[in-house]
């Protein structure tokens, strides 16, 4: 049996600041494309590409389903075949070749060839996205066994994600408005602007990816032999028959806790998708608001995440998640009954950003806490969570678009009501789930 002295060097392994920063560069391309995909894809397909709402929703659902299925597949491939950085390169190349095509300015929805281009480019993009995500996440345990070091890598990764989202909205803010028609809604003639935005983001993503591969040394990711002892010890521990008696109870708790994450993801994803449509419907600040309102929402999310650790110390995990759900429900109430003034829209953006951040970070912390030493199950749990998140979100979007009102005179506030409803229902799901697992939380 290994002694504590033999294990301690591994557990105390330090990572240099340069390594942590280099690691953060590895997911920036994904973060840039994700912010663009969720914030502007639906409104782009409907207003610029001139697709029917049901078709636009179906394309978004297609992307979600492909991402959902490819995530566990790459979980197996990355662990068993080739090196992690090779999978990262493959995924990045797929994104580079496909993502600009999605916003390529095709506006002949009746043409079957154009639809085939959209389907293929979305399929390649989401497959590449999953490859980069899984290979990048799998590098965290490969780089270090220290929980503190892993937490640092996760925090830096989240900071890079926020920075990438801010970059998307800043680029959109610069490129999208025009002096002569800043108050005009999006139309087919804006296609070249979206193309310029996407090409700019792709260039930034490629630079970040190159820096990642240059400065993150491959030898740091290939020291798997050092961890075999810990893996074998974990297998002996969980092969114990006593643990089988509590297997069903543990799985039930894990899945219910995972639903906290699903509710949080449902809230932030649907709010991100329908916030631009709600902004356009109100005609507040025209196209400029399509960049500034999501930017304010993301900044409030970042600030809430920074403050969360102080709130958590005084209130506990359960109270933190409850606070996040109440903020999310409040955002739905204000969206529905607060009116369409500029101030109200920015208040809604702030509430959505802070509520999503609090529930998301808390849900991830709770899931990790419940998994505890059962790390051999963590991949299964996160795969199930990701699958449910992607599929449920896609199904909700396509059903909303299927029943979309096409006569503004009869439903002038359709997007406002939709945003309010999805925020309220997703946070209500989180609230119900919270009460079902309240005994497991502090």
Secondary-structure topology with pairs:
Elements lengths: L3 H8 L5 H9 L2 H20 L5 H28 L3 H19 L9 H32 L3 H29 L15 H25 L12 H11 L2 H4 L2 H36 L6 H27 L1 H21 L4 H30 L6 H25 L11 H23 L6
Keywords summarizing the entry:
mainly alpha, Growth Hormone, Chain: A, 79% helix, 0% strand
Verbal overview:
This protein is an all-alpha fold and 442 residues long. The protein has two domains: 16-232, MFS general substrate transporter like domains (Growth Hormone, Chain: A, Up-down Bundle); 247-442, Up-down Bundle (Growth Hormone, Chain: A). Helix content is 79%, strand content 0%. The protein is built from 16 helices and no strands. Helix 5 runs antiparallel to helix 6 (112-143), helix 11 packs antiparallel against helix 12 and helix 13 runs antiparallel to helix 14. Residues 1-12, 179-183, 224-246 and 373-379 have low confidence and may be disordered.
């Amino acid at each position: 049996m290994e002694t504590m002295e033999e294990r301690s060097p591994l557990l105390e392994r330090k990572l240099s600041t340069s390594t942590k920063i280099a690691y953060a560069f590895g997911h920036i391309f994904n973060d840039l494309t994700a912010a663009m995909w969720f914030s502007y894809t639906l409104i782009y397909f409907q207003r610029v590409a001139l697709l029917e709402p049901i078709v636009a929703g179906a394309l978004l659902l297609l992307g979600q389903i492909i991402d959902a299925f490819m995530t566990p597949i790459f979980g197996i491939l990355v662990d068993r075949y080739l090196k992690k950085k090779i999978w990262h390169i493959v995924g990045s190349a797929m994104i580079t070749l496909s993502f600009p095509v999605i916003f390529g300015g095709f506006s002949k929805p009746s043409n079957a060839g154009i639809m085939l281009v959209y389907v293929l480019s979305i399929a390649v993009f989401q497959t590449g996205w999953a490859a980069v995500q899984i290979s990048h996440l799998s590098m965290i345990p490969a780089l270090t066994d220290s929980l503190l070091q892993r937490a640092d890598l996760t925090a830096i990764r989240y900071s890079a994600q926020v920075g990438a989202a801010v970059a998307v909205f800043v680029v959109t803010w610069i490129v999208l408005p025009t002096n002569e028609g800043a108050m005009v809604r999006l139309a087919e003639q804006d296609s070249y602007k979206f193309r310029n935005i996407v090409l700019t983001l792709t260039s930034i993503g490629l630079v970040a990816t190159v820096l990642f591969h240059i400065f993150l040394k491959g030898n740091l990711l290939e020291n798997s032999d050092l961890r075999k002892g810990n893996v074998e010890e974990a297998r002996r521990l969980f092969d114990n028959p006593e643990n089988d008696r509590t297997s069903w109870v543990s799985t039930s708790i894990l899945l219910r806790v995972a639903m906290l994450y699903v509710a949080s993801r449902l809230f932030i994803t649907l709010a991100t998708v329908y916030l631009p449509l709600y902004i356009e419907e109100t005609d507040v600040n025209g196209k400029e608001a399509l960049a500034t309102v999501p930017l304010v929402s993301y900044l409030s999310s970042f600030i809430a995440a920074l403050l969360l650790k102080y709130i958590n110390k005084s209130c506990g995990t359960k109270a933190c998640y409850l606070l996040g759900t109440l903020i999310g429900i409040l955002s739905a109430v204000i969206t529905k009954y607060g009116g369409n003034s500029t101030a109200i829209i920015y208040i809604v953006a702030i509430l959505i950003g802070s509520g999503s951040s609090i529930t998301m970070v808390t849900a991830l912390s709770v899931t990790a806490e419940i998994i505890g030493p059962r790390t051999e199950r963590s991949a299964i749990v996160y795969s199930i969570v990701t699958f449910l998140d992607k599929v449920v979100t896609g199904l909700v979007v396509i059903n909303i678009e299927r029943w979309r009102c096409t006569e503004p005179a009869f439903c002038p506030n359709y997007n406002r009501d939709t945003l309010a409803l999805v925020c309220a229902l997703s946070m209500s799901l989180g609230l119900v789930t919270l009460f079902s697992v309240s005994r497991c939380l502090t």
